[in-house]
Amino acid sequence: MTDVRLIPYQVEEIIEDLTNIPQGVEMIEAPELWERADKGKGNVVAIIDTGCQTNHPDLEGRVIDGRNFTTDYNSDPDNFLDNNGHGTHVAGTIAAIGKDNSIAGVAPECSLLILKVLTKQGSGRMEWIVDAIRYATDWAGPDGEKVKAISMSLGGPQGTDELHQAIKDAVDNQICVVCAAGNEGDNQEDTDEYSYPGAYNEVIQVGAVDFQRNIARFTNTNDEIDLVAPGINILSTFPDNRYARLSGTSMSTPHVSGALALLSNLTTKEFSRELTEPELYAQLVKRTTPLNYSKKAVGNGFLTLGLVDKLENLFSPYTKMWEQEDKSILMAERRS
Question: Which of the residues 49, 58, 72, 82 is marked catalytic?
Answer without folding.
Answer: 49
